[in-house]
Amino acid sequence: MDDGAPMDDEALLTFALALPLAGSDDVKTASGRLRRVERADADVIGNLYWLAYPPGIAACDLQDAIADIHATFDGKYGAFWPEGSFVVEVDRTVVGVALTVWRAPWAGTPDGPFVVELFTDPGRRRRGYAKQLLAAVATAASMVGEDMIGLRVDASNAPALNLYRSLGFHEI
User: Residue 87's domain is classified under what CATH number?
Assistant: First the structure.
């Protein structure tokens, strides 16, 4: 994450999804146990956050990564929405995370719940965990009457761009 400003505005694309999520009917929950995130998960999530990105992209070091996750829970990136934030566990190990706020604080973002972080364990990517997490966020948003979710992604992250587009997200 950041100090309220994107790491490089030109490198980030903002996407929105009008609900429901395309392809959510075929999300298999058997691959991982999905549950709502808890504040007690913050340090574990921070460790995974550090592993999920190259150094300097999301955090300077492990302590910075953990502090940033705590800051997310504390509302630094918008009012944290625990009911729309999830982890996926495999063998009781967190392997994927979606952290969502009610509304993003940045200009040019859609008016709806906003996924401020979506990441998976680098050794467990391309197994459907991100899709499983986004389906859970979309369902939670629909259940409270929201009709859209949003997120931002680095323009060079081709796997993420492909996933989001395949699920019906569009660039705004």
Answer: 3.40.630.30
Strand 114-120 relative to strand 148-154: parallel, antiparallel, unpaired?
parallel
Whether the predicted pLDDT of 139 surpasses 70:
yes
Domain span at 141: 9-37+78-171
Instruction: Tell me, yes or no, whether 31 lies in a domain.
Output: yes
pTM: 0.90
pLDDT digits (tens, 9 = 90+) for 39-55: 999 999 999 999 999 88
The pairing of beta strand 93-101 with beta strand 86-90: antiparallel
